[in-house]
Specification:
The protein is mainly alpha-helical. It has nine helices and no strands. It is globular and about 65 Å long.
Length: about 250
């Protein structure tokens, strides 16, 4: 879910096809896209809690069906073009081709289906984003990311302490609710850069301090998850950002 939002933030609003609608039909269309925006915020929040994934899936497919149907009735394309279309689709095809050679093809195919669902999430986010006012929508989604990260990490650290975890050993690890330390660490690799970028672009000092506090909380949760892969992911992201900033200079 978070990967899609980060990419789709750069997707511009496409020109509308056909004549603008008015009256009850036009108002209904506006309400549908407004609800889709609220659905995007809700799904972003639910994605921080693994126990709610089944509810998230049902809600997503309902929203996807409504969004594609509304776009089709409006005479608009249901596929929003992005710069990563070709590599994303090639990667999905390559993984599918390698499934017969996997150690457990049935398990690999099940994981591939999950990946395809995430691809659908990505293009649904782009479709919804096309119809949203960019400034308010961006702030709402990123605020939800900050709030979800704070709740997730707060729970993980409190649970870590209550289960007797400490910095002296790794027998107890910080974990996500209804999941494990691997899920927590992986999700923080996604969430931390979004919180940092949001905080950097805020102007009010209290907003920056709040984002900084959430980042600190997330880093603590990452530390006590005792997952080296998570730290390597953050280091790789830091190197990539450094190279990008250097090139811009």
């Amino acid at each position: 879910m978070l990967e899609a939002e980060g990419e789709c933030a750069a997707v511009g609003r496409e020109a509308e096809i056909g004549k603008p609608e008015s009256g009850a039909l036009g108002r209904t269309r506006d309400v549908i896209w407004r609800l889709q925006g609220f659905g995007l915020i809700l799904l972003t929040f639910l994605s921080f809690f693994p126990r709610l994934f089944h509810l998230e899936e049902y809600l997503f497919f309902a929203l996807l069906l409504i969004a594609t149907g509304t776009s089709w009735l409006d005479g608009k394309g249901i596929w929003v073009r992005t710069p990563i279309d070709l590599p994303l689709l090639l990667f999905a095809g390559w993984v599918l081709l390698t499934i017969p050679f996997a150690t457990d093809p049935a398990y690999s195919f099940a994981e591939w289906r999950k990946f395809v669902t995430q691809v659908l999430v990505f293009y649904w986010v782009c479709l919804v984003w096309r119809e949203q006012p960019k400034g308010p929508a961006t702030r709402a989604v990123l605020t939800t990311v900050v709030l979800g990260t704070a709740i997730l990490c707060g729970y993980a650290l409190i649970d870590f302490v209550e289960r007797g975890g400490s910095w002296k050993d790794r027998y107890v690890r910080a974990a996500a609710p209804s999941s494990d330390f691997n899920w927590l660490s992986t999700y923080l690799v996604i969430a931390i850069p979004l919180v940092v970028s949001f905080g950097v672009n805020l102007r009010a000092w209290w907003q920056r301090v709040s984002c900084g506090g959430v980042v600190g909380l997330a880093l603590l949760a990452q530390v006590f998850s005792y997952t080296r892969a998570g730290w390597l992911g953050l280091v790789a992201q830091g190197i990539a950002v450094g190279l990008i900033i250097r090139r811009r200079w």
